[in-house]
Amino acid sequence: MSELSPETRAVHLPRPPLNGSAPISTPIYQTSGFVFDDPAVFADGMGRPDGAFVYGRLTNPTVRALEEAVSGLEGGSGAIATASGMAAINTVLLALVGQGDHVIAQRALYGGTATMLNELRERFGVSVTYVAEDDPEAVRAAVRPETRLLYLETIANPMTQVADLPAMCAAAREAGVTTVVDNTFASPILCRPIEHGADIVVHSTTKYLGGHTDVLGGVAVFASDATYRKVWRFSVDLGPTADPFAAWLTLRGIQTLHLRMERHCANARFLATRLAAHPAVAAVHWPGLASHPSHETATRLLPAFGGVFSFDLTGGRAAGERFMSAVKLALLAPSLGGVETLILHPATTSHRALSAGELARHGIGEGTVRVAAGIEHPEDLWADFEQALSSS
């Protein structure tokens, strides 16, 4: 290459071989595409998710490492990493649901998912039947010839209902219906839905998998290789691609996932138990409490009960607003799963697009406060909550 001009040499930098070694940490392959010596290998890579790396919209070595990591954690046959959790959800919905199809979904859903189902109904005539998350007979009764999906959440956002995955997935499988489970709130540490019969698992990797409030991402994991390849082909044209740097940050977060989940769950237990005994609190919604309607299901399916819970103050919305304005250590912010404790008001944030009737169907009150427990010292968190409660 000695004959090339400096301008050209600056573009075509050398690519040093690894010389038989391998990096401890997955490198960030920050490139939009890859070069080939063999046209046949180039062409083959365009047509399958496990072929040669061709173009970043198809996949990337760092992104594939994340896909393989989460697929391995969930026990899947393959995975598709995306730019956000909603990108993962919408990729699955749009790939598998068409005009005039029917979806069965649990009543308690993340607001973005519920909004998307409404959008599918309005745009494409997709009908949706809502059922309780622990009622397989309702699934059997709702099935139609055009039913394509059963959509569940392992732990629902924000009232933490726990889906009876074995029973619900079995009812769907009897009818030949694909089950999709959002496992974001549980993470693969607390639950692996494929082991309970789910066909597809989705995550917002922004949350517990990333774990540090510094990355957006999502992933869909598939039990069936055939379904994985079908959805991958659709995703290539849809373009929800994960960024290599975001994938790298998520991989870094996954390495401490099990340690963080222990502390998230322990802090949630500590705070939920204290709040349940406080006179200013009307109700606490956390499946680890015996009073929660999903307690038996959660005890049967989960080794711990998650790091997110909600509670209602006796003073209603006004009291909730005073509480959220008074906390000093906990942060009033969106999302969850990071090391910091975060709080929000679902009716005006995560579920703001829902009508009053839809909020009531989800069990969300005007004064409901959602808490995503971080990994701080629990006594410090309680001292903050206690002083905030005195002002509410």
TrEMBL record:
It catalyses: L-methionine + H2O = methanethiol + 2-oxobutanoate + NH4(+); L-homocysteine + H2O = 2-oxobutanoate + hydrogen sulfide + NH4(+) + H(+). Pfam families: Cys_Met_Meta_PP (PF01053). Its cofactor is pyridoxal 5'-phosphate. The modification N6-(pyridoxal phosphate)lysine is found at K207. Keywords: Pyridoxal phosphate. It comes from the Bacteria. It is an enzyme of class 4 (lyase). GO terms for biological process: cysteine biosynthetic process via cystathionine; transsulfuration. Transmembrane segments: none annotated. Its EC number is 4.4.1.2. The keyword Cell membrane does not apply. Belongs to the trans-sulfuration enzymes family. PANTHER family: CYSTATHIONINE GAMMA-LYASE-RELATED, TRANS-SULFURATION ENZYME FAMILY MEMBER. This is homocysteine desulfhydrase.
